[in-house]
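Morning F.,

Quick status update on the modeling queue. The single chain you submitted on Monday has been processed. Sequence for confirmation:
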Amino acid sequence: MLDEREGEVPRAQRDRAFNRQPVSKRIAVVVAGPLFNFLFALVAFWAVYLVGVDGLRPVIGRVLDGSIAEQAGLKAGDELVAIDGMRVQSWDQRRIYLFERALARKAVTIEARDGTGATRAHRLDLSTIPVAQINSSLVERGIGLVGYFPPYLPIVGALQDGPAKRAGMQVGDRLLRIEGEPIGSWESLARRINDHPGEPLRFTLERDGQRLDLTVTPDPVEHNGRKIGRIFIYPKFAEIPPEMRVKVRLGPLEAAGEGLRHVWTSSRVILEMLYEMLRLEASTSNISGPITIAQYAGYSARIGVDQFMLFLVAISISLGVLNLLPIPVLDGGHLLYYVLEGVKGSPLSERTMVVGQQLGIALLMALMVLAFYNDIVRLLG
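Structure tokens below.
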């Protein structure tokens, strides 16, 4: 791009230099990048839902005790039908809308169908949720709704280096008994292990049709101020039954409308979350860096093309919003300069712009350090 501030421009081309263009043209140029981010997100969202997005039926698997969902009368087994009049077809479909309502300290009305087929409206006051709980676990921990999840089988699905592996336990082993008592569920097994740090436990398991007895001594691990036992095994999940799977498809016009709503709501959520962070109400741990983004990219790609495309939609919206922030060196910073120039009638002084750029670079560097720190904490955690 020709710009006399970047270097010498031939006399014959000076009238084409960027810095000599009207303010309106310069504004159009710097806004074009973020607008393309939003346009890509809209088109990608539209295309994905036109083809269909795989998901789980919006059936409540569990309602947390004392939660606002329980207070509103929602129960395990209820199926969500609509939120504030908007149809719900899969568990994750309206998650971003609930984010926005929670940040706005508003109430929502959830229509749910119970086991008898009756549909009832439940009003949930989201203003009671602490801002610190408005994060990726909002629906579960903040509202108290846990979606359907296939049960854990008492079968070793994975194991790390630790007591179980050292004792000879293997992936695929079916756990039958612990200390002679039948293992009713994975949860009861985990509680038994947690309660016996450093104490030998006798396991009876089945492998290739043969029964084996192993003695495993859980490692003592600090957790929430107390020692618990860990043997570092992880369960195998049962298959999700076909009746719990859905493919959400929308028509061209409905997909376009949903796409516009999603881009707008997501943008508002990002801005409101940044505002709450500046007020020190929301945790800065919500900021993610390249490591976490790469992990989510790989995770979504393994699930399917539709989820990977929705991941790209989220990234594109985030880039569009962040690029429009009035921080010098970003497009939003240049936009601020040009708006001030239009109001003032002349460009800002070179010194003012240089100082602004230095402050902008310092702020971006601080954000990058924070993002990398959060990534490393997540990896270690």
